[in-house]
Amino acid sequence: MRMHLIAASFLLLASVGAAAAQDVVVAPEQDTVIQEYVHKQPLASVEVPGVELNVGTALPDTVELREVPNVKYRYVVVHNRTVLVDPGTRKIIKVYN
Length: 97
Prior knowledge:
By secondary structure, this protein is of the alpha+beta class. It is built from 2 helices and 4 strands, in the order H-H-E-E-E-E. The chain is globular and about 35 Å long. The chain starts with a helix and ends with a strand.
């Protein structure tokens, strides 16, 4: 019984952690800066077979992320859509367009 409680607690904590990782909120002021920079610094779109552009999807290491000055997140254009990425996890935190 005790082992089941430990396993259930672990699963609950893991799911809470996963949900929290996907709840990245970009402040409106920072979002404006990002969008203006991306508009002025267009990138060629890359194709990444098998990757769906959803918040929480991790991009492979082969995808080069570009820096936005004074912003901790990076961006790239995948399948003709600009995505904002957490460089530490390489997970998409916002999809533009």
